[in-house]
Design a protein that fits this description.
- This protein is of the alpha+beta class.
- Helix content is 35%, strand content 32%.
- It has helices spanning 13-30, 39-47, 98-112, 135-142, 163-173, 191-207, 222-235, 284-299, 315-324, and strands spanning 3-8, 53-62, 65-75, 82-89, 117-125, 146-157, 180-186, 238-246, 252-260, 267-275, 305-311, 327-338.
- A twelve-stranded mixed sheet has the order 1-2-3-4-5-12-6-11-10-9-8-7, with helices on both faces.
- Strand 4 (82-89), helix 3 (98-112) and strand 5 (117-125) form a beta-alpha-beta unit.
Length: 339
């Protein structure tokens, strides 16, 4: 068997097509409950990338047949010693050395670009949960990577939401949130809130549990927010935001985001939720999430399930998600490799 690997970019449409087909096949086998691998999202990674990231791509062929690809994201504005990786091998061509060859190729590339560590994620089964291959964890361990942060994906079945209990939880929470007012929007953040959203977004990696992952807080400003929005627009992501405004100061002090991708109107991701530390203790996280759930479902009636990821140690946010009806599906591990 002969394995060849070559770097490529968005100008090589044949390589992009081949990588997409590999990703789609792997998604269907490894995560059958996920939305289909979105072609619009994948293409946008090449023509409208995130403003703060440079991406390197490589395609592996096994005896001339496209067999796997590697995506390396190199932060440009902060964390310039770091990178993240996604390594995907076609399900029919695994256990033939393709993953190992891509890994070795990627390590050489990252060292050439001065990176000192790389982080990648794997999925595995939870007790009593749906079957998941343990191959990703086993492979990561053989590379010398260290398990750095455990996460759990939870799913909310919209048809099983206990709306009576949810209304009761909101009624109990609202008296503790006097002096705060909810505001919601879709898509791009209104100019009056963009500076506050940038501040909250920049706090995310300061406040969220990061385990042993060596990742510094990101320096987020309005320009970076706008660049990220352009990238998400290109991917076809429909975004539903809810912010909580502190009436005395006029500032947005909490923010949450739900997103629906272009490939599946039945599925959404619960993404960022953050409350400014100075305004915690007022149940703003619960209020924001619950009200934004209503916001999403009003405009996206086809949504049937919502997925979210939390660090296993993030007991506060996990408790809110469990109260909303999210239930564990599978385990995700962040592996960190020193280069």
């Amino acid at each position: 068997m002969s394995i060849s690997i070559a770097s490529f970019d968005g100008t090589d449409r044949a390589a992009v097509d081949e990588a997409y087909r590999i990703g789609a096949a792997a998604n269907d086998v490894d995560l059958p409950d996920f939305p289909p691998f979105c072609r619009r999202r994948f293409d946008a990674l090449f023509h409208t990338p995130a403003p703060d990231t440079r991406t390197l791509w490589a395609l592996a062929r096994l005896d001339g047949v496209p067999a796997g690809y590697l995506q390396l994201d190199l932060p440009q504005l902060d964390n310039t010693d770091n990178a993240t990786a996604e390594l995907v091998v076609h399900p029919e061509l695994r256990r033939r050395g393709v993953g190992r060859a891509l890994h070795e190729y990627g390590v050489r590339l990252l060292r050439e670009h001065g990176r000192k560590r790389v982080v990648a994620m794997t999925v595995s089964a939870l007790p009593g949960g749906p079957a998941r291959s343990g191959a990703g964890n086993a492979f990561a361990a053989t590379t010398g990577a260290q398990s750095a942060l455990a996460e759990v994906r939870r799913r909310l079945d919209v048809g099983e939401i206990d709306r009576v209990a949810l209304r009761a939880a909101l009624a109990d929470a609202r008296p503790r949130a006097e002096g705060y007012r909810s505001v919601c929007w879709q898509g791009a953040t209104p100019q009056e809130y963009v500076a506050d959203v940038a501040y909250l977004d920049g706090r995310l990696l300061m406040d969220a549990p990061m385990g042993d992952v060596q990742w510094e807080p990101e320096q987020v400003d309005a320009e970076r927010i706008r660049g990220t929005e352009r990238s998400l627009d290109a991917k076809g992501r429909r975004r539903y935001h809810l912010g909580v405004r502190h009436e005395e100061s006029g500032r947005l002090v909490a923010w949450t985001l739900l997103g629906v991708g272009a490939s599946a109107d039945w599925h959404a991701f619960q993404q960022i939720t953050i409350v400014d530390p100075a305004h915690r203790g007022h149940r703003l996280g619960l209020i924001a999430k619950a009200e934004n759930l209503h916001h999403l479902l009003t405009h996206e009636p086809a949504v049937r399930v919502i997925d979210t990821f939390n660090a296993a140690s993030n007991s506060y946010m996990v408790a809110i998600n469990e109260q909303l009806g999210f239930r564990p599906v599978d385990a995700w591990n962040n592996w960190q490799l020193a280069l």
